[in-house]
Design brief:
There is one protein chain. This protein has 384 residues and is mostly beta strands. 6% of the residues lie in helices and 44% in strands. It contains 2 helices and 32 strands. The strands form 10 sheets. Strands 12, 13, 15, 16 and 19 form a 5-stranded antiparallel beta sheet that branches. Strands 21, 23, 28, 29 and 32 form a 5-stranded mixed beta sheet that branches. A 4-stranded mixed beta sheet has the order 1-20-11-14, with no helix packed on it. β17 and β18 form a beta hairpin. The radius of gyration is 23 Å and the shape is globular.
């Protein structure tokens, strides 16, 4: 369990130049991959072209950061991300040889410069760690934007210990709330500094699964008065209170009992595009943006399949649901859309939606059936 450790002509022109400089500094440099973007030698370029960026990061913290893949080293260096903006990180082609899940390991600019020749020293003191996925598929690329929380970078910290074989993400203020920490399998004594605040933590197991092609998640459960509840921790970090908290995964993780809650906390839809002429997207509402998969996929070209996760709740959900209703969702192209037949999906199952049509203006869809029954396949967290 969590353990407490401590409690205006020239003037206008000058102002205009200063303002322009601030905008450039705050927004990061936009480009296709040239320029260092910083007098410190850190590359803060905003990479935007396919084949030149790996993933996009929204840095909601107050610190400029340098980001690595998995662990801090010259071989895993991606690029920098300015505070308060969204940045496309450089594609490290030596590291990203194929699609893969990985951890965005961020350190502050100050820590990077102070330890540039000894980056290994930063392994146990990241500014932030975010579980991510690099998608090398040219049809779908990496459309997700990963967030570094505004809660990062305070005076006080949580100490993460995860001696289990499962990756654990800590979400704040809801089952689908923002991620404030990530403890990879087998990692111990990792300090993550947070702002003074009250924290309401829901841990979630996460992994990439080849069967679904998605990042699958499971919320650990505990039984309270005969009712299953999501595992939950609450603590505060404050100057006049506790200055640290320790989070030990092994204290509540029961490997032998995991099979009892290995059903993913989501359902999945595999969409097959059988439209003869057009690529398609999924929209969860008539005026919604195109949905993006957990691995960054969005566009489904003719003849291709793509799997979408359907969470069993909203961002602020604090209780489990075993089903989700599909209603008012659409298959769309740039020139039209058609509503998907309504359906109730059950957590832990894959469903199949077949889309047909002869043009980009018609894209009817139907749920796949066999002998009059909806086809669904069970998904287990521990499957590869």
């Amino acid at each position: 369990m969590l353990k407490r450790k401590l409690t205006l002509v020239a003037a206008v022109l000058a102002a205009s130049m200063m303002f322009s400089s601030c905008i450039i500094n705050a927004g990061g440099e936009s480009g296709s991959g040239s320029g260092s973007g910083s007098s410190s030698g850190i590359d803060y370029t905003n990479y935007t072209k396919a084949g030149e960026y790996s993933v996009k990061v929204r840095n909601e913290s107050m610190k400029d950061v340098v980001i690595f893949a998995n662990t801090p080293s010259e071989a895993t260096l991606l690029s920098g991300a300015r505070a308060g903006v969204t940045t496309g990180l450089k594609l490290n082609k030596d590291f990203f040889e194929k699609s893969q899940d990985f951890v965005l390991f961020a350190v502050t600019e100050e820590d990077y410069l102070a330890n540039k020749n000894s980056l290994k020293k930063l392994e146990k003191s990241p500014f932030a760690m975010v579980y991510a996925y690099y998608n090398a598929d040219s049809d779908s690329n990496s459309n997700n934007i990963y967030s570094i929380s505004a809660s990062m970078g305070g005076t006080y910290y949580i100490l993460l210990n995860n001696g289990t074989e499962k990756n654990v993400e800590l979400r704040n203020k809801g089952l689908y709330g923002e991620s404030i920490a990530f403890a990879g399998a087998g990692t111990v004594q990792t300090k993550v500094y947070l702002q003074d605040d009250d924290y309401y933590i829901y841990p979630v197991f996460r992994k990439f699964q080849k069967k679904t092609g998605e990042i699958v998640s499971v919320f650990p459960k505990e039984t309270v008065k005969g009712e299953e509840k999501p595992l939950f921790f609450q603590f505060s970090l404050a100057e006049n209170g506790d200055h640290s908290q320790e989070f030990n995964v092994e204290e509540w993780y029961d490997k032998d009992a995991f099979k009892d809650y290995s059903t993913p906390s989501a359902a999945y839809i595999m969409i097959h595009n059988g439209n003869k002429r057009s690529g398609i997207t999924l929209k969860k509402g008539a005026n919604a943006e195109a949905s993006v998969t957990s691995t960054g996929g969005k566009n489904i070209n003719t003849g291709k399949d793509l799997v979408f996760e359907v969470p069993m709740g909203s961002t602020s959900s604090t209780t489990f649901s075993s089903t989700a209703n599909i209603e008012g969702w659409y298959i769309a192209t740039a020139v039209g859309k058609e509503e998907i037949p309504s359906m109730t999906l059950q957590a832990g199952y894959m469903y199949y939606l077949d889309v047909t049509g002869d043009t980009a203006y018609d894209m009817p869809s139907k749920w796949r059936t066999l002998n009059g029954e909806i086809v669904k396949d069970e998904v287990n967290f521990d499957e590869e």
